[in-house]
Amino acid sequence: MGFNLQLLFTGIGVGSIYALVALGFALIYRATNVVNFAQGDFAMLGAFAMVVLAIDLELPYWLSILITLALMVGFGALFNLAVYYPLRNRSFLPVIISTIGASILLENGVLAAYGPRPQSLDSIFAVPGFSVGDVFFDSQYIVILVVAVVMVVVQYLFFERTLTGKKMQATSQDKEMASLLGIPVIWMIMLTFMYSAMLGGLAGILVAPVLFVTVGMGSSIALKAFAASIIGGFGDVTGAIVGGLALGVIETFGAAYVSVPYKDAFAFLVLFGFLLVRPQGIFGERISEKA
Amino acid sequence: MGHRGNAKGPVIIKSGLFMLAAAVGLAAFAAQAADPIKVGMVAPLTGPGAESGRFQTQGAKLAADEVNKAGGVLGRPLELVIEDDQTTNPGVVLAFSKLAGNAEFVAFLGPIRSTQIHAMAPDALRVGKPVLIGGTDPVLTHMGNPWFFRFRPHDVYSARVIADYGAKTLGKKKWAIVHSTDAFGTNGMKNLVESLKGMGIEPVLVQGYPNNSQDFTPVALAVKQSGADVMGTYMTFEPDQGIFAKQLRQLGVTLTWVGSPTTVTTTALKLAGPALYGSYAVVDFNKDSSGAAKAFAAKYEAAYKSAPDIFASWSYDAVHVLARAIGEAKSLEPEKLRQAILAVKGYAGAEGTYNFDHNGDGLHGYNIVKNNNGTVVFDKHIDFDD
What we know:
Chain A has about 290 residues and is mainly alpha-helical. Chain A has twelve helices and two strands; from the N terminus they run ααααββαααααααα. Chain B starts with 8 loop residues before the first helix and ends with a strand. Residues about 1-10 and about 25-30 of chain B have low confidence and may be disordered. At the A-B interface, α1, α9 and α10 of A face α2, β7, α7, α8 and α9 of B.
């Protein structure tokens, strides 16, 4: 019993990491209809910014978090101007390739600037976690889960209840029509990049104490988060978190009961299954319905 | 100009030409004398092994500088040319073929990762020049490739020392083995299973995991459930080891840990922190293991302001042994160089005393160290004759 509960808790913890990054995917996809393959690197940048601020410059932890998030908002604007904006009138393919290029540039840029040594970042809490019976609850996983849920609620409310959110949705569905209706499309997209960069940075800050800070940390999470997004329904906020959690749990139980070496295969087997049977994902709508 | 038409003119011109010729000849000779002996090096400057690549190239550069300060080899300086292998197999094949395409290179320093050395092995065989390697998969020097020379003791020795120390010195009989599923981890596991079998011990758990795993809970739970009292590990990357160590301790597993060299690298100690306290490891390099090791550590620290790692010591030794072999062979001809490296006996390097056998293995033993609350303490060095 304790064994399964431990697996469940860990699976949910790992899954919420995927979910946080998947949320960023969902946002940008909704606004621009393209997948941002540098989303994982936003997390890496956030984590490295924390290392520089909280460890190298010895600033207080909370202040470091705030500065990091502010920096990430600025970076999102810059990313939009450099990676998306010049290609905004092209099809989705050049933009996707542009984000892949940005991902490579970011990883190697950080490698060149900071060096290859993996860094560790302390958790917000002094206590690493607590045990109930045989089950250990890692405090960082709890924080990640809570933040993921909060961000989903915030995003849901934002998209469904605010005018700006609705403008962003309209922008995503039909840029020309949105533009005709007087929605400042360019600003809506800029805003999306700023917010999703901040979200990525937040994911990086939260994940760093668990996975350590390495240049490749973002891309390995992003691959799973991408699978999670497809399982949940690409572009769907609830789908991102459900897909992420499902993937984390499936992967952890698969590793424990079937095979650890083939752990990564479970995630992608589930992905294949969804692509074959329900390509729009759990919460996704059919393209024909949308049109 | 006043000498034009003078009878002495031709003499002056002739002597002038002679002097010019002599000057050109001298310059050419000087250029030839100063022409560097080029050694190619493939190292992970990017990718997950970039950290080790830094140590590796710094160790090699330090040795090359020392050789050059002492007058070089055969009156010529050594020049290291480094190519990035991206810590991947395709990367290493590309990097090596880029270097090997240039006939000027007399020898090469290969990777420290066995899987990469396997990937470049066919090319190394075709090129037919010495490749000095740090990978510890025993097969590398036993697969009919005469050009691989190893500067770290291979995993049969590490496995024998792990098994010997855990079972005999510490008296533990219930073994769990955790290993990466790459070539390094899988072969290390096989050798450890074999060594334990030689002592009549069957491990209670043998568990592999893929590199760059984000979570080790299933592995840690398997170790816990196995009831093992000692664990031998072959883990490739430090972040993996750090996550595993932390999760293992969080789940309340306190068994004795005897790990492969990555257990006590500077990065592993920093990432895992207290989770690795009390663990043992086999290492090929420890600064307290010999006078030569101590001297190397002092020179490395003076040059780079940081303590050397196992990734730095072997490449340092490799460059020194190569320089010595070139000097002994008095030739850059590959076969003569090969014979000269094989003839190296009793060379006291940072890693230990090099006695090359006919397979190309220079070292035949390991040090045992303990992580004493974050400080690596040397215990003993064990060498084997076979």
